[in-house]
Amino acid sequence: MEEWIFRVTAVALPAILAITLHEAAHGFVAWRLGDDTAYRLGRVTFNPLRHIDPFGTVLLPALMYFTTGFVFGWAKPVPVNFGRLGHPRRDMVWVALAGPGVNFALAVLSALLWGLVDPHSGTVGQWLKAATEVSILVNVILMVFNLIPLPPLDGGRVAVGILPDALAFPLARLERFGMLILLGAAFLLPTIGRQIGVDLNVMSWVLGPPVDAVIDLIQILTGND
Fold first, then answer.
1. What is the pLDDT of residue 10?
2. What is the distance of C-alpha 216 from the center of its chain?
3. pLDDT in tens, 159-172
4. Are 139 and 18 in contact, with CB atoms under 8 Å apart?
5. Of 20-29, 53-62, 179-188, which gets the smallest average pLDDT?
6. C or N: which end of the chain has fewer Cβ atoms within 10 Å?
7. CA of 161: how far to CAs of 24, 34, 175, 185, in Å?
């Protein structure tokens, strides 16, 4: 039981913080740029309880971690009225980048803490070492995943905000299909690939190299290389 609690908390707590602070950052930046929708709903807060989706933040990631080893989840999306921003198209980019930016900062802080922890200092030290390792990985994966240039992901909103209209408008119209495309790439294609004996794990192709590159960068920045 103690080992089970150790594993669950070392994985769940960093994952919940990564997901919920990601959403809080969107709301905070939107508030500072003119849209107080999230603020009025009490979503501009670093209290994870305000952002947790019981299924997407807790149950699904836990089930996937202990069955597949791959973690996928979400928090309750922070509502943003882009029309209320001071400069909607430009500010949309900053609001979108806030979430991945917080994940990068959390990964760097976790790496700094990891370097300070002595794993031989007992159970607490071992737990901190494990939790910070999970935090680095989860935050980097969440950052890279959300920067995929497909709406409704943050990268898609950034692309819509900076591309010329001829490219931005067709991309924006993909938003209604974005989650279906992502779920198909993450789950359906690998399943089909296993049936026909072909590696169709598209998400590992897309996420693997940039995740490794960002972790290498963080190790260099924090002196842990």
1. 86
2. 18
3. 999 999 999 999 99
4. yes
5. 53-62
6. N
7. 21, 17, 14, 25
Instruction: Burial-class residue 58 by CB neighbours within 10 Å (0-12, 13-18, 19+).
Output: middle
Sequence-distant (≥ 6) Cβ neighbours of residue 26 within 8 angstroms? 38, 78, 80, 95, 96, 98, 99
Contact 72, 186 (CB under 8 A): yes
Percent of the chain with pLDDT over 70: 94
Tokens of 117: 């922890």
Q: Which two tokens stand for residue 189?
A: 């294609």
Looking at residue 224, its pLDDT comes to 82
Domain boundaries, the chain: 2-221
Note the Cα 167 to chain centre separation in Å: 26
Contact 31, 39 (CB under 8 A): yes
3-class secondary structure, 46: coil
